[in-house]
DNA sequence: CTCATAAATGAGACTTCTCTCAATAATGAG
DNA sequence: CTCATTATTGAGAGAAGTCTCATTTATGAG
């Protein structure tokens, strides 16, 4: 159940780094279970197998660690998405690839999905971070003549929100590839892609295999 | 600044009803300012000009009053929207009318807008309540051959979420009729309305006059 | 192995609320 | 106006956390 996003590459780092990562991973776990609002410091330390006071050797307060958890996840998801996009040149393909990758990651790792959803509601900053990967692809699509849109943060928020609803629904009701396909459909409709072309485009890109 | 949704028709009711309504209106005000999570009971009573203990003559705990506030608003918005829809027969017109009315109400009365946004995130029940007015109109649109959709809660959530993003953006950045028009545009695109028809449809329905 | 340094510990002082209740005040029917 | 009923009051007990700090424990360079 426990993932170790922060421990990851730090196995051989000094004790200080390892304890810090243990606290972050513990916080991630708890945020996943109960949301960002209600996690208690005493829970984070207990769940990490540490004493209460240890927390204060590493973070000044609750907000600080919660923010680092969110940001760490956002960066990691961005990294994973980029990984799968190398060599994809067509803007529509890029949008579909990124969207399905994003949703797959969030569903495969519900801890992250929960954080993505909370962050999206609560901070404009995180929202910009999460939608940044889309902006360049939409710009490309405009240049390639695929889209009929006004490209600004409002549009990015609307698309991000389609993705978030898709993730939230699957987290609540169970994974369902069909909902991912429909999210892709809705996004292409929003972007003004010709209605008749959409089914074929999606069929190619949303295969019933999960990400690695 | 203070609205009196709950006091409204109760001016002549007994003292009990008036105090209860005062607490609800006070809670509404505070929820609007700081969200549903952080409102304290002691704040609600203080802001209503009552003593702390009075709260417990009317509600058992925080959740109870917060839920009543949300639900009261949802019902009132539904009522106001229905009011403006009498005699509108075409499904597309109905969807546009309801959408713009909803957004206008939430922007005109930011207290309500804030609650709508919070409720949407937090309870499936409230989400169903808020999207109920749409369901029948989408069914009508299917029968009239206007839409190309699968009509279920997922679609309703996606449309609701477009509206919520529109409201959130305007609450954060100031009222902007253009964002309302674009939300309508996005919704019609989502519903599969022919791209070429949309501008004209929207121009008729989103006038630069606010609701009554 | 030794020892200076760094890390971890957890009891408890503090803070910030919620909720109770005996005492007080207001209400309105007769 | 009277008085039983109903509503309000606010002090304080209790619950649930946060954060501090003197003390103990672990680490690893020499």
What does this entry look like structurally?
Two copies of one chain form a homodimer. The first copy, chain A, is elongated. Chain A has helices spanning 15-34, 41-47, 62-83, 91-108, 110-122, 124-143, 153-173, 177-191, 198-205. The first copy, chain A, has two domains: 5-59, Arc Repressor Mutant, subunit A, CATH 1.10.10.60; 67-205, Tetracycline Repressor, domain 2. Chain A has nine helices and no strands. The mean pLDDT of chain A is 91. Chain A has 212 residues and is mainly α. The first copy, chain A, starts with 14 loop residues before the first helix and ends in a 7-residue tail after the last helix. Chain A is 68% helix and 0% strand. The first copy, chain A, binds a DNA duplex (30 and 30 nucleotides) through helix 1.
Q: Can you tell me the CATH superfamily of the largest domain in chain A?
A: Tetracycline Repressor, domain 2
Distance between the termini of chain A: 18 Å
Helicity level of chain A, as a percent range?
55-70%
| CATH architecture call of the largest domain in chain A | Orthogonal Bundle
Number of domains of chain A: 2
Largest sheet of chain A: none
Short description:
The structure is a homodimer of 212-residue chains. The first copy, chain A, has nine helices and no strands.
List the helices and strands and how they pair.
The structure is a homodimer of 212-residue chains.
Chain A: H1 15-34, H2 41-47, H3 62-83, H4 91-108, H5 110-122, H6 124-143, H7 153-173, H8 177-191, H9 198-205
Chain A binds a DNA duplex (30 and 30 nucleotides) through α1.
């Amino acid at each position: 159940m426990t993932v170790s996003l922060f421990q990851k590459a730090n196995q051989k780092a000094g004790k200080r780094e390892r304890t810090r990562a243990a606290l972050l991973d513990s916080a991630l776990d708890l945020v996943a279970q109960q949301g960002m609002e209600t996690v208690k410091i005493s829970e984070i330390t207990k769940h990490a197998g540490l004493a209460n006071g240890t927390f204060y050797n590493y973070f000044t307060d609750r907000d600080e660690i919660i923010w680092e958890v969110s940001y760490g996840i956002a960066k990691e998801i961005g990294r994973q998405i980029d990984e799968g996009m190398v060599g994809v040149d067509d803007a529509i393909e890029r949008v579909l690839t990124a969207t399905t990758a994003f949703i797959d990651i969030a569903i495969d790792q519900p801890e992250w999905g929960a954080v993505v959803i909370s962050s999206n509601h609560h901070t404009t900053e995180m929202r910009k971070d999460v939608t940044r990967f889309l902006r360049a692809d939409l710009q490309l699509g405009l240049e390639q003549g695929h889209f009929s849109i006004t490209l600004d943060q409002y549009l990015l928020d609307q698309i991000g929100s389609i993705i978030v609803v898709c993730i939230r629904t699957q987290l609540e009701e169970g994974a369902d590839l069909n909902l991912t396909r429909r999210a892709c459909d809705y996004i292409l409709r929003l972007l003004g892609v010709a209605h008749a072309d959409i089914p074929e485009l999606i069929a190619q890109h949303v295969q019933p295999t999960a990400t690695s």
